[in-house]
Amino acid sequence: MHGTVRWERGTLIVDVGRRSAANAAARPEVSLLYPVRTDDDYSLIVDGTAAVRATRDGHRLLVTPTRAVLHRHAPRRDFTATGCDSDCVVVLPASQDHDEGELK
Question: What's the distance, Cα to Cα, between the start and end of the chain in Å?
């Protein structure tokens, strides 16, 4: 499905149709993909848990993110150390060894 997503108080919110709402209700572990805009850009993949809410106009997914990765298919030189042969950057969850307010 394709939809506009907005961020409110730690939750991703997207208005969806009946079928997408039924799928998320049956399988609440979801992934959102923000595709690349240019060949050298990263895509963003956000995994989370969805809750379905009825609205006057249809249905809304409230997605609580659990993991997010910036991903692109550019080979890394040090992929054996990271276990990933693409140029990936984990952005959520943040590393536990970070300074207040800083993500690593």
Answer: 31
Nearest to 12 by CA among 64, 55, 66: 64
Residue type, 58: G
**What are the boundaries of each domain within the chain?**
5-66
pLDDT category, 28, cuts 50, 70, 90? very high
Q: What is the DSSP string of the chain?
A: ----EEEETTEEEEEE-HHHHHHHHH--EEEEEE--SSTTSPEEEEEEEEEEEE-SSSEEEEEEEEEEEEE--PPPTTHHHHT-SS--EEEESPPSS--TT---
Are 76 and 84 in contact by the 8 Å Cβ rule? The answer is yes
Q: In this structure, which amino acid lies at residue 91?
A: V
Q: What is the pTM of this model?
A: 0.74
